[in-house]
Amino acid sequence: MTGKLEAIYVRQSKDKKDSLSIEGQIERCRLECSHPTTALVYEDRGFSGKNTARPGFQKMQQDVKEGKISKIIVYRLDRLSRSILDFGQFWNVLDQNQVDFVSVNEKFDTGTPMGRAMIYIIMVFAQLERETIAERVTDNYYTRIKRGNWPGGPAPYGMKNIRRKDEEGREVPSLAYTDEFEIVKEIFYRYATEEVSLGEIGRDLTERQIPCRKRKEGWDNVALARILHSPVYVQADEDIYLYYRSRNIGKISNGIEEFGGNSSAHVVGKRAGNVRKYTSFEDQVLSLTNFEGKIPSDIWLRCQYRLEKNRQIGNSGKGKNTWLSGLLKCGNCGYSLTVRKWHDKKYLYCSGRVNLHICDIPSFSQPVDELESEVQKELEKILEECNREQIPVENTEKEKKIRKQLREIEDKIQKLMACMQEASDISMKYINSELEKLDERKSELLKQYETPKKNEKQYYKGIDFEELDFEEKKMTAQAFIERINVYDDEIEIIWKV
Question: Tens of pLDDT along 336-361?
Answer without folding.
Answer: 787 776 666 777 877 767 655 677 77
